[in-house]
């Protein structure tokens, strides 16, 4: 867990934060330079000895990151000072071959792709653990009836397994998209000053191909200096992931409310407490997952807003991407980390769920009575009439037993007796295809394993 800043333990939690740190950025830029030298040597552009000498100096720990940042103002990016520092460290015979054919944007864009690949891999690991836990909850509680809610009010019965399956669906969708972006859209950037690789005198394409192979990034058809769909897609998948996390975290915080109390986080001693209220037991991991995920949409918007790059190299739009991309990777990583912690701590209370189902005395499932009435009446009672007579009984339910009121109604009582009405008011009798939907979701997840 990152601990470099006051809020990092909360909003920069998990493994991704370190993978997008300043040192990680510098190392990724140096990885580009090392791979460029090796690719150039393999393509016969520079001597192999020069490539070896350059690679030896491509270690972030031997560079002063603060000094690089301070020097970045001279040309407007940190790649220039890094290349200068690298050149100064390389033995004189190899110095002339450092950064050959490349431009600063090649270095930073490729570094951004490398960091994205590494961060998405770590994020995916945590997300996969979340999916596994959600599948377990879905299977375990496939038959656990609970209140379904719409517009924050009780609606119809569902199962907690169906709820967990719905959460799982969002996580699976995020995993699928992450895999697609990692496989197809994270590409090396190598185009030189204006995307022509003119400085390599006809050797540009072989070097590009070898560079992509060595860095394990996709080889683009051409330079994408001002065609920023790759950055947009990274932003999109991170935003989608934050959305999936936010949905689950928000549901859990609502279900953990004192008045509902259907789930709770059982963390280590001291977790979820309050600075002033000794009785509090907050679902703190869900809260932090929601807080981290909430950073995502604004950062996605920043990256999309920066997508209009002019001509062959942009003046400012490219620079506007660096910080929000880093922050978005960090925030999404933190969100998924806290979701994993939350789900590992999560405890489900089926008894409380049943109590909440019964708290309205059967009102939750009166639709079942109306549907049965239409079915058994054989056309004597239409759907609207059935709905109206049942609704009229519901309005009087506070002053009496609902099943008794329904059975006493002249229209309903003609076709349904008290015992049948009580059966229809059992929430477990009105779960529709919930169990099959859970099975389908679990098969979908198993097919990916």
From TrEMBL:
<dbReference type="Pfam" id="PF10397">
    <property type="entry name" value="ADSL_C"/>
</dbReference>
<dbReference type="InterPro" id="IPR000362">
    <property type="entry name" value="Fumarate_lyase_fam"/>
</dbReference>
<dbReference type="GO" id="GO:0016829">
    <property type="term" value="F:lyase activity"/>
</dbReference>
<dbReference type="Pfam" id="PF00206">
    <property type="entry name" value="Lyase_1"/>
</dbReference>
<dbReference type="GO" id="GO:0019619">
    <property type="term" value="P:3,4-dihydroxybenzoate catabolic process"/>
</dbReference>
<dbReference type="InterPro" id="IPR008948">
    <property type="entry name" value="L-Aspartase-like"/>
</dbReference>
<feature type="domain" description="Adenylosuccinate lyase C-terminal">
    <location>
        <begin position="361"/>
        <end position="442"/>
    </location>
</feature>
<protein>
    <submittedName>
        <fullName>3-carboxy-cis,cis-muconate cycloisomerase</fullName>
        <ecNumber>5.5.1.2</ecNumber>
    </submittedName>
</protein>
<keyword id="KW-0456">Lyase</keyword>
<keyword id="KW-0413">Isomerase</keyword>
<comment type="similarity">
    <text>Belongs to the class-II fumarase/aspartase family.</text>
</comment>
<dbReference type="InterPro" id="IPR024083">
    <property type="entry name" value="Fumarase/histidase_N"/>
</dbReference>
<dbReference type="GO" id="GO:0047472">
    <property type="term" value="F:3-carboxy-cis,cis-muconate cycloisomerase activity"/>
</dbReference>
<dbReference type="InterPro" id="IPR012789">
    <property type="entry name" value="Protocat_PcaB-like"/>
</dbReference>
<dbReference type="InterPro" id="IPR020557">
    <property type="entry name" value="Fumarate_lyase_CS"/>
</dbReference>
<dbReference type="InterPro" id="IPR019468">
    <property type="entry name" value="AdenyloSucc_lyase_C"/>
</dbReference>
<dbReference type="InterPro" id="IPR022761">
    <property type="entry name" value="Fumarate_lyase_N"/>
</dbReference>
